[in-house]
Design a protein that fits this description.
Length: 192
């Protein structure tokens, strides 16, 4: 096999992997992780289950790829986050309900013992709380206008963001996710 053929095969394999991850996102959004099967994902992309296993040897490996892909869409270096950009992130999330639904389904399922994403979400939330505390400290210093420290406020900020997502997914006509988040920022003392 020539170098060019090898490179073409690698590109095709990477494209196929990306297609599988997108299909897995859809299947997980529809059925949840436990209800999603490799066979359903394989069918969605026109592969056999064995063909899918060539790219992702286990369901857990596919789940990790889905979570990593989702994180890439929101990737902003921690040093570049600002409170006003968080409102923009919430607005952006309101434009991609399928991704938010998949994330929320996986998050909800991950609280059970033995779920393959439990470690991922535990670590992710630890990092997000630390990042949000850094953002809040840069904006307000050691105390917010409400008197709380950034470390005490960070879990509340994250809870509001994720809690609004659940409410919005359940009743998008009644919950203005970006507006409600701007209201929360006003409680922090931020001009929305």
């Amino acid at each position: 096999m020539s170098y060019g053929d090898a490179m073409n095969a690698r590109v095709r394999s990477e494209e196929r992997r990306a297609e599988i991850v997108r299909a897995a996102l859809e299947v997980i959004a529809e059925r949840g992780y436990r209800g999603a099967s490799l066979a359903a994902v394989a069918e969605k992309v026109g592969l056999t289950q064995q063909g899918l296993l060539h790219h992702f040897p286990t369901k857990e490996a596919l789940l990790v790829a889905v979570l990593e892909e989702r994180d890439q869409w929101d990737a902003v270096p921690a040093t570049q986050w600002r409170v006003d950009l968080l409102a923009s992130l919430v607005e952006y999330n309101a434009m991609r309900p399928g991704i938010i639904q998949t994330f929320s389904a996986l998050l909800g399922e991950s609280v059970t013992e033995g779920h393959p994403a439990r470690g991922y979400f535990t670590q992710r939330y630890r990092e997000v709380r630390e990042s949000m505390a850094t953002v809040l400290r840069a904006e307000y210093g050691d105390r917010l206008p409400n008197g709380l420290t950034p470390e005490r406020t960070a879990p509340l900020l994250v809870a509001v963001m994720d809690g609004l997502q659940y409410q919005w997914l359940l009743d998008p006509e009644s919950v203005d996710m970006p507006g409600a988040f701007r209201d929360f920022l006003a409680l922090l003392g931020e001009d929305a």
